Amino acid sequence: MRVTSFDVNTIKFETDFKRGKFLVYNDSFHSDWHARINGRKASLYRANLAFKGLVLPAGKNAVELAFRPAIGGAVYVLTLMVFMGTFVYLVYLFSGAGEYDKRVGDAS
Fold it and tell me: Could you give the angle at the alpha carbon of 26 between the alpha carbons of 71 and 8, nearest 5°?
């Protein structure tokens, strides 16, 4: 087995077993983890009560385990929108647009 990519939400690895195996990955199981074997969706099982497990066929396999929560994309978009709105508002404040209020206040 050889790990080809690893980050906080994804692990990719390659296997080459002579017989089919049940692989247990000792990382916390969560229903938002998804598995792909050779590009095809695969079932991910709860193993040893707390970990991830999947059935690997014999031969060479490219496996990907990815954490993809259903609302994850929406949270990223919402966060980006809040950040951009705040940025635009700060640019407005520091661009001198507030100077108009000072001039009007001084005239009265």
Answer: 40
